Amino acid sequence: MSNPMSLLSASEAASQLGVTTKALRLYEQRGLMAPGRTPAGYRVYGPDEMLRASEIVTLRALGLSLEQVALVLGGEPQRIDSVLGAHEASLGRKIRELADSIDKIRELRAGLACGRRGDTSAGFNAAFDLPWPWGGERFELREIPSLNYIIGPLGSGKTRLAKRLAETLPDAAFLGLERGGPAIASRLEADAALKSRVKRTSTRLITEGASQSQDLTALLVGVEADPRAALVVDMVEQGLDQATQEALMSYLRQRAVTRAGPLFLMTRSSSILDLSVVGPNESIILCPANHSPPMRVAAYPGAPGYEAVATCLASPEVRARIASCPQAA
Q1: Is the dihedral of CA 92, 97, 103, 105 positive or negative?
Q2: Second label for 117, Cα 20 to 30 Å away, from 14, 104, 176, 229?
Q3: What ranges in the chain are assigned the alpha helix state H?
Q4: Among the four given CATH numbers 3.40.50.300, 3.30.420.40, 1.10.1660.10, 3.30.450.20, the one describing domain 4-71
């Protein structure tokens, strides 16, 4: 029998648990717990009852209904897993809904800052059947923002997704890894306006700490060729040191505010995709390791897919070592 000194009244127990006495009576009515009684008939709660009540309060705080709490506390392990799995899925849906709402609010705020009202769409949409390694599922991107990242582990299919996007979006171009060479110089000489834009942007980036290189020039030729069209870039960080990557992203984020054509940047560099500064004109597309369909990921901890995105990212130094490894090809 419990020591009378360790017994709590209903009001004392409720205060210690952070609930109301009405909640404790409801738990009792539902058969979830059975407090003791004094000779006068008042409810009292000993250590065992408080432990049980604490478990109920914890499960309720996670959003479980009283029916689900009853199943978890008294059910078989298989049934418990089913209940918790269903609740986890429900919470995941709510998180995705909240993430969509946050994205809308950010887009509206960005639009208001630029003098736009009510226009939350960049005017670009894409819908197509996913290529291998997926099973041909239909994939859609609506209201594509100006700056998009495509990320995933090796073998996840992100390059095939990127190429299919370039094939689907009107007037889009795909800038692959073989983007340098003599053709770049010839193209610049043949297009004076393009050469001027590339030179202006290159000068700006160098002023902000970037290093001049053929890789940077080739990248800028693709970015500045037709600012209104969509561009998909394979591993944008190729050949760029950290300072250059940071200067480039500062420019591309400012470019995104002008509502230029959307950029899709394949990357695994934390300087290209800095999760702490992803803005309202940006989105992240994750290609999961298990070949589930690609998904948009909100840039905050706890969002579905966030941890997978964070795991894929590495510092520019690490990315450079990977790229120089003969087995990385």
Answers
A1: negative
A2: 229
A3: 10-17, 21-29, 47-61, 66-74, 77-113, 158-168, 182-190, 192-207, 214-225, 242-257, 306-312, 316-324
A4: 1.10.1660.10
How confident is residue 162, by pLDDT bands cut at 50, 70 and 90? very high
Q: What is the pTM of this model?
A: 0.65
Euclidean distance between CA atoms 91 and 212, whole angstroms: 48
The listed CATH number (3.40.50.150, 1.10.1410.10, 3.40.50.300, 3.40.1180.10) that belongs to domain 123-328: 3.40.50.300
Instruction: Report percent pLDDT > 70 for the chain.
Output: 88
Q: How many CA atoms lie within 13 A of 223 on its CB side?
A: 26
65-74, 119-128, 161-170: the lowest-pLDDT one: 119-128
Closest CA to 263 of 123, 153, 145, 106: 145
Return d(Cα 293, Cα 326) in angstroms, integer: 30
User: Looking at this protein, which amino acid is placed at residue 173?
Assistant: A
In terms of Cβ atoms closer than 10 Å to its own Cβ (0-12, 13-18, 19+), residue 61 is exposed
Q: Where are the domains of the chain?
A: 4-71, 75-120, 123-328
End-to-end Cα separation, the chain, in angstroms? 71
d(CA 186, CA 191): 9
pLDDT digits (tens, 9 = 90+) for 91-100: 877 777 777 6
Model confidence pLDDT, tens digit, residues 49-76 = 999 999 999 998 888 888 889 888 887 7
What is the Cα–Cα distance from 274 to 316, expressed in whole angstroms? Answer: 12
Residue 324, pLDDT > 50, answer: yes
Using DSSP bridges, classify how beta strands 138-141 and 126-129 pair: parallel, antiparallel or unpaired.
antiparallel
